[in-house]
Amino acid sequence: MFWGRRVCLQVGLTHVGGVIVGSPMKKGISGGERKRLCVAMELLTKPSLLFLDEPTSGLDSVTALSLCKLLRRLATSRTCTVVCTIHQPQAKIFNLFDQLLLLNRGSIVYQGQAQGALEFFDRSGFPCPAFENPADHFLDVITPNMNDSVESLLEKEAALQRHYTPPAVEHLLDTPKPLVLPRDVTPWRTQFRVLLRRSLKETWRKRNTTLVLLAQTVVMAVLIGTVFLRIGTSQSSVTRRQPVLFFTVINQPPAPAYHVSAYFLAKITAETLSQLPAPILFSCIVYFLVGFQPIAAKFFIFTAFMVLCSLSATSLALAVSAIARTTDMSVTILPMALEVCRLFGGFFLSPANIPMYFKWLNALSYVQYTYVGISLNELHDLQLYCTPSQINKQTGSCPTTTGEQTIASLGLDYISIGGCAGDLIGYIIFCRLIAYLGVRFIKY
Predict the structure, then answer these.
(1) Beta strands 81-85 and 107-113, pairing class
(2) Where is each ABC transporter domain found (predicted)?
(3) CA gap 377, 370 in Å, rounded
(4) Mean pLDDT on 276-294
(5) What is the 3-state secondary structure (H, E, C) of 356-398?
(6) Pairing between β-strand 99-104 and β-strand 107-113 as defined by DSSP bridges
(7) Which of 6, 76, 371, 427 has its CA 20 to 30 A from that of 290?
(8) Are the beta carbons of 334 and 320 closer than 8 angstroms?
C-alpha cells in the first residue's frame, strides 16, 4: 500500500485518489489523469523498461506537456528506461527526449541523440528553418509529398542515407548478462485481499444494477407463481408440476460476460457473493406460491439447486468469454451454448431417449442436472390423489398415486439428488478452471 501511495504521488494523482475512473456514461477523472493512471499502473510492478504507445494522443497541449515532463522525471530519477512512440510533438516536448529514432516505411532514417538530429539534417541538406518546430521539420522531410517527383524522393532518401551512420551497438551483444526475473512485489495473500476489497467496492457501486436484477427476479417469480398457483396433488398436477420445475431452471440467467490467480479468484468471489440474493429470493417466492411440498428440507434443497444453477450459468458465460477472441464471438457462442443446455435439459427429451452420439452434449448440460435434481426433490415422498372422474374405471384405482411412479415414467431414476448436486459443483469448477486457463494463457 505504501508503494501504491508513492506511485500516486509521483504521477500527481493523490488529489483524485477517492474519485472513480469513470466511463462515457459516468463522470470520473479527466483524460490527462487517465493517461497518468495508465502509467501509474505499469509503475506498480517497478519495471526497468516502460513502453508507451502514443501517450499524448487525444490530450491538449498543456496536458501532453505535463505527462511528458512526468515521463522525463521518471526516466531521470529512477532506474527506468522509458520508450515511447509520439507523433508531431510540440517543441517543448521534443526537447525532453534524450534519444530519437526516426522511421520511414519501416527503415531507420536517424537514430541517436535527439539534439544531434538537427545537425544530421543540416549535413544532409535539409536545415531546420529558424523558429520552426524541429519535430515538424523532421517529419516534413522524411514523409513523402504527393507533389514530389520520384527523382526528388530518391535524391532525398540517398542524401539521408549517405550522412547516416548507425550507432555502434554490436559490442553490447557480446556482453552476456544473466536474466534475473523479479519476484512478486506483494505477497499473494495481500494481493487477494486488496483485489477482493476492490471488487466488492466495484460491485457496491453497481448496486443499482443489482437492484434492477432483484426487481426483475421478483416480477418473474410472482408471474411464475401465480400462473402455476397452488398446483396441489391431484392427478392433473402431475402434468403441471414438471413444466414449472423446468421453467424455474431456465429462468436463472448467467451474469454478464466478463471482459491472474489472485485477481481472478477475488473477482469471482465478489461476483458470487453479489449473485446469491437473486436465486434465493426467486426460490422463496416461487416455492410457496406454486405450492411445492411444505417441508423445510425440500425447500432448502430446492434453493440450493437454484443457486447452483445460477452459478453454473455464470461459470459457462465466464468460460466462453475467457476463450473467445472477441466480444462479438462470445456474444455469438454463449446463446448457442445456453440453448444446447436447455435442449438437453431433460424436459423436452428424456435422458434415457437421447441418441448415443449426443450423450456428450447431455453430460455438458447444467440445466439437466438442475431440472432432474429439483424434480427428484419434489417428487420423492409425494402422495397424489384422484377425483372421482380421474379413477380408472377398469381397475378402480388411481393411475398415479406416488411421486416415485412419476419419476420412473419420466426416466429420471438414473441418478440421485446428491449425484445431481455433485455434477453441478463439478461443472462450476470445470468451467471456472477453463476460464482461469483462458485468462492466464490465451493472449490476443
Answers:
(1) unpaired
(2) 10-57
(3) 10
(4) 86
(5) HHHHHHHHCCHHHHHHHHHHHHHHCCCECECCHHHCCCCCCCC
(6) antiparallel
(7) 427
(8) yes
Q: Are strands 81-85 and 49-53 parallel, antiparallel or unpaired?
A: parallel
Residue 356: CB atoms within 10 A of its CB come to: 6
Percent of the chain with pLDDT over 90: 7
Distance separating alpha carbons of residues 55 and 52, to the nearest angstrom = 6
pTM above 0.85, yes or no: no
Distance of CA 74 to the CA centre of its chain: 32
Note the pLDDT of residue 299: 93
- CATH 3.40.50.300 domain span(s) along the chain: 2-169
- What Cα–Cα distance (Å) separates residue 341 from each residue in 39, 212, 305, 312? 44, 26, 16, 11
Which residues on neighbouring strands pair with residue 192, listed in sequence order?
Answer: none
Handedness of CA 338, 340, 341, 345 (dihedral sign): positive
Residue 274, amino acid: S
pLDDT, mean of residues 109-137? 84
Within 10 A of 415 (CB to CB), how many other CB atoms are there? 16
The CATH code belonging to domain 2-169 is: 3.40.50.300
- CA atoms of 97 and 79, how far apart (whole Å): 16
The dihedrals phi and psi of 369, each to the nearest 5 degrees, come to: -65, -35
**Mean local confidence (pLDDT), 96-125:** 83
Buried b (16+ CB within 10 A) or exposed e, 98-134: eebebebeeeebbbbebeebeebbeebebebeeeebb
Q: 305: burial class by Cβ within 10 Å (0-12, 13-18, 19+)?
A: buried
Mean pLDDT of 365-384: 87
pLDDT at 256 (0 to 100)? 44
Q: C-alpha grid cell for residue 240?
A: 403441471
- Please report the pLDDT score of residue 257 as a whole number: 36
Q: CA 51, CA 53: separation in Å to the nearest integer? A: 7
C-alpha cell at 56: 499524448
- Please give the single-letter amino acid code of residue 442: I
Nearest Cα to Cα of residue 274 among 221, 314, 240, 241: 314
Single-letter code of the amino acid located at 82 = V
Rounded to an integer, the average pLDDT of 55-66 is 81
Per-residue 3-state assignment (H helix, E strand, C coil) for 255-298: CCCCCCCHHHHHHHHHHHHHHCHHHHHHHHHHHHHHCCCCCHHH
How far is the C-alpha of 183 from the C-alpha of 180, rounded, in Å?
9
Length of the chain (residues):
444
Residue with cell 377425483: 387
Q: Which of 63-72, 152-161, 291-300 has the lowest mean pLDDT?
A: 152-161
